[in-house]
Specification:
Residues 170-277 form the Acyl-CoA oxidase/dehydrogenase middle domain. The chain is an alpha+beta fold and 620 residues long. It contains 18 helices and twelve strands. The protein has helices at residues 16-26, 43-61, 65-71, 86-95, 114-127, 129-148, 151-163, 295-331, 355-388, 393-429, 440-448, 457-468, 475-491, 498-524, 529-562, 571-590, 593-603, 608-611; strands at residues 74-76, 79-81, 166-171, 187-190, 196-206, 215-224, 234-240, 242-244, 250-253, 256-261, 272-277, 284-287. The strands form three sheets. Strands 4-5-12-7-6 form a five-stranded mixed barrel. A two-stranded antiparallel ribbon has the order 1-2. A two-stranded antiparallel sheet has the order 8-9.
Length: 620
């Protein structure tokens, strides 16, 4: 008999109790349900959707994850063929309406909160990151057209993009430019009918072609003849793979050709394409909206959504890796208990009994739950900004400011730590984790790219220190730090959490001091120090935010635990809340102290990375 793993077995796992805690106990989603624009939604509807989305992820997407990884995509006659089962899963996804939960009802959506959309997307990303990128990109591209497009463009494209008959992409990167988007050489020549002839090459285009949908709607950055150099001269164009006739039917091919697909370390079921536009001078696009040279502000709307989704991918994959490692640690017996380590006849125990395995498990648990809380905090601010717009614009501005501030933290810290949790999960398995019989090695390979695409994490750090800290005159940062400080003041004498809360207060002060130091470098012209320290500062601020949210969750858990009945009927709930408390204490007392250390390192202004001569890195 073969010992080969069953590639069609679902290995995805999620903790639904933890999701319910965040939605309803910590972030109180029910407070905004039932009112505009979420009139049709209540707690029961949200809970039903969460349960069904998890079921769909396990039954439809999870079984395709290993297949997508092993088989990958292939290019035949210039067209991408996705792995077996992807086309059928795409059809089921859209028939069930999963990508339309938070979409506008005018275009076939269900008008739900963004927070619910993100909760659903976590399940689907964790079950099959490669697959869900296709509809995720279509959703993001549709949002851009909905925000910035003309009424005619919305009518022409949105129904098919939200409904699943068209995919979507964003096309920024070019071979010579990489992250330097301003160096783009793709061109757009205006035609007599007001449309544009598009020409250029884009690389690393996720979902650049596939066979799941009838069409793919590309959003392409290009420069109109005579436009300014750099990012200010870029415009955004809608470029369908197949032209769309006036009656909405599909016409002829639009001279968009797949030059190659990349062979990658992970997410092999996602086609990463090199696309050539206008090789035969037959590629026609239309400007998004009516104003040229607005490409970057328009594209940033999609990029911000994509960056949130990438942070979510990190925690989604990490959460499944953690829960698989937990299951393995409970089942795998190896070695005697530490209390009987000298007794060769002592019974073997499950490895979860070994102290270092328990350390790895609680480390993974705390990071996963803390980053998930950070993402839900961001989405709650987003939903509140939506609810309050036009009713209380000052409060709406506050909530949008917190969204802007948290996006780089979610993307960078979520993706960095997602990979590291997957790495720790492999370590928990030991040698078994390094082989393909278990899912964690694929989780680790899939997760590595999250820190690279949608803007490398250094770009996120520079966005944070170069743009976000100074927004609204620094009010967004001051509000964030003030809220952390208020939590510290309210809980620093707590008999259980007091020591950890004190550590949070010291971290908050370290972040505030380091932010002032960064400002001083800007003012004193010490500009090279800023990018040298930017990643360190983002990590400091992220760890402070995560510790705050974990401790806030622990405070809620302690209060809820005290109200439980003393009998065995409450044992599962008691254990859940105890886990929330212990994870928060672990993170605050073992991870959070790094914030003070990093502040000290930042303050030393060490420039050795700048001072080393170029030819001193190696003599080869």
């Amino acid at each position: 008999m073969s010992n080969a793993p069953n590639l069609q077995q679902n290995r995805y796992k999620a903790d639904l109790r933890e999701v319910r805690f965040l939605l309803f106990e910590q972030f109180k989603l029910d407070q905004i349900l039932g009112q505009g624009p979420f009139e049709a939604w209540g707690p029961d509807e949200v809970q039903m959707v969460v349960d069904e989305a998890y079921k769909f992820s396990c039954e439809v997407l999870g079984p395709l994850n290993a297949i997508g990884d092993r088989v990958g995509c292939r290019l035949e006659d210039g067209k991408v063929i996705t792995p077996p089962g992807f086309k059928e899963a795409w059809k089921k996804l859209y028939e069930a309406g999963w990508m339309a939960v938070s979409a506008d009802t005018e275009y076939g959506g269900q008008g739900g909160p963004f927070t619910l959309h993100i909760a659903i997307q976590e399940f689907m990303s964790g079950a099959n990151s490669a697959f869900i990128m296709y509809p995720g990109l279509a959703f993001g591209a549709a949002e851009v057209i909905q925000l910035f497009g003309t009424d005619a463009q919305k009518e022409r494209y949105l129904h098919s993009m939200y409904g699943g008959t068209s995919g979507g992409t964003m096309c920024l990167t070019e071979p010579h430019a990489g992250s330097d988007v301003g160096s783009s050489t793709s061109t757009a020549k205006k035609l007599p009918d007001g449309k544009y002839a598009i020409r250029g090459t884009k690389i690393f285009i996720s979902g650049g072609d596939h066979d799941c949908a009838d069409n793919v709607i590309h959003l392409v950055l290009a420069r109109v003849e005579g436009a300014p150099a750099g990012t200010k001269g870029l415009s955004l164009f809608i470029v369908p793979k197949i032209r769309i006739n006036e009656d909405g039917s599909l016409g002829e091919a639009n001279d968009v050709n797949v030059g190659a697909i990349e062979h990658k370390m992970g997410i092999n079921g996602s086609a990463t394409c090199l696309l050539n536009f206008g090789e035969n001078d037959g590629c026609i696009g239309e400007l998004v909206g009516t104003v040229e040279n607005q490409g970057m502000p328009q594209m940033f709307r999609m990029m911000n959504g994509a960056r949130i989704s990438v942070g979510l991918q990190g925690v989604a994959v990490a959460a499944s890796a953690y829960l698989n490692a937990l299951e393995y640690a409970r089942d795998r017996k190896q070695g005697p208990s530490i209390t009987n380590w000298k007794d060769a006849t002592a019974p073997r125990v499950a490895i979860i009994e070994h102290p270092d395995v328990r350390r790895m498990l609680i480390d993974m648990k705390s990071r996963v739950e803390g980053i998930r809380a950070l993402i839900i905090k961001l989405t709650r601010h987003f939903d509140l900004a939506t609810v309050l717009k036009g009713k209380d614009d000052e409060q709406a501005l506050y909530h949008q400011g917190q969204v802007d501030l948290l996006v780089p933290l979610v993307k960078a810290y979520g993706s960095d730590q997602g990979f590291r949790v997957c790495e720790t999960a492999i370590q928990t398995f030991g040698g078994a984790g390094y082989i393909k019989d278990y899912p964690v090695e694929q989780h680790c390979r899939d997760a590595k790219v999250f820190s690279i695409y949608e803007g490398t994490n250094h770009i996120q750090a520079m966005d944070l220190v170069g743009r976000k800290l100074g927004q609204r005159g620094g009010a967004n940062l001051q509000t964030f730090l003030g809220e952390v400080g208020a939590f510290v003041k309210a809980n620093e004498k707590d008999p259980i959490l007091g020591k950890a809360v004190k550590e949070l207060g010291e971290a908050q002060e370290a972040v505030a001091g380091s932010a002032m130091r960064l400002l001083g470098w800007f003012q004193m012209g010490k500009m090279p120090m800023v990018p040298l320290a930017a990643n360190r500062f983002l990590e400091m601020m992220s760890e402070t935010a995560v510790a705050w949210l974990l401790l806030d969750g622990a405070r809620i858990a302690i209060d809820a635990q005290a109200k439980l009945p003393a009998d065995d009927s409450a044992a599962p709930e008691r254990a859940f809340y105890e886990g929330k408390k212990q994870a928060a204490l672990y993170y605050a007392l073992n991870v959070l102290p790094h914030v003070r250390l990093n502040a000290e390192i930042l303050g030393r202004e060490d420039a050795s990375a700048l001072d080393i001569p170029l030819d001193a890195f190696a003599t080869v």
